[in-house]
Write a structure and sequence with these properties.
single chain, mainly alpha, about 70% helix
Length: about 170
């Protein structure tokens, strides 16, 4: 990591450190990266599919779809005429089989999607850290510049206080 303080000698202020200029800060700054774009480029088709499914399954709409499907299935097989029931009460074997198959397939797929989303979140956090570190360096440079200006103004004020009063001809 490069130091935030770049010492430059000024002709008018001998022996005092001058804070870095905007040009100096920009010269030492690494370009920002778009972590979202980089992450998307590294994903395979199957990984993109896993993320899409994870995003869709984790919604209220999907919950309502499964809930509605279950109510219709159980309601039909409980209340419909006996000849039209395809998974009769009380066993609901076909419903249990299909529900378990959905769970068996979705569980690992959701875990894969969550792992991919976790990697993406870590990359975004790292990029945020880099941006915050750069901002901290720039703020330090601004504070150094303000301190330098304050010291210079105090020096000028002391010089003016020591100077003889100026008299105007009347």
């Amino acid at each position: 990591m490069k130091s935030a303080l770049i010492i430059v000698k000024d002709v008018t202020m001998s022996d005092t450190a001058v804070p870095p200029t905007l040009h100096d800060i920009k010269r030492h700054r690494a370009p920002l990266r778009s972590v979202n774009v980089e992450h998307r480029k590294t994903l395979s088709r199957l990984e993109r599919l896993a993320i899409r499914i994870t995003d869709k399954v984790g919604t209220m709409g999907f919950f309502l779809l499964i809930f509605g499907w279950t109510l219709v299935w159980l309601g039909w097989n409980t209340l419909a005429p006996g000849a039209l029931r395809f998974d009769p009460f009380p066993a609901f074997v076909l419903w249990l089989f299909l529900s378990n198959m959905i769970q068996i397939f979705l569980m690992p797929l959701i875990m894969v999607g969550q792992n991919l989303q976790g990697r993406h979140a870590e990359a975004r956090a790292e990029a945020d850290f880099r941006v915050n570190t750069k901002a901290e360096r720039e703020i330090e440079a601004i504070l150094l510049h303000l301190e330098s200006q304050t010291a210079l103004m105090i020096k000028i004020l002391r010089h003016l206080e020591d100077a003889p009063p100026v008299t105007t001809p009347s």
